[in-house]
Amino acid sequence: MESAFQTHLAIYRVADQGDFRGREGILQIPAELNGVVTGVFGLDERRVARRKPVHTGASGAATAKTKAVPLGPGDLEKRYSFTPNQGEGQQIGIAEFGGGYFADDLRAFCTKYSLAAPNVTTVP
Question: CA-CA distance, 25 to 109, in Å (whole number)?
């Protein structure tokens, strides 16, 4: 990979992320692949996205400067052009940067909307 993309790969350690594979230098696409390759992913595992912190007020209730509106099943069906109430058999890939998804959030969502919890396979 180093030779193909003219970069240097190494294992790095930082206090807030632990060990991760990273790279130094910009990536270069071999000339014969110019216009064919549209992206190179997976050479650098450092965390680049984080959840916004939730602030609690004097009452202990969560507050935020802008209130996020949660999406329900109907919202997701519409945004991703799923056939309404026909999600069985669908496979969805979600890129979660920073260590995976939150299983308790998924359970809470399914409980709130009276849905069976899906079978989730985490692929590093």
Answer: 42
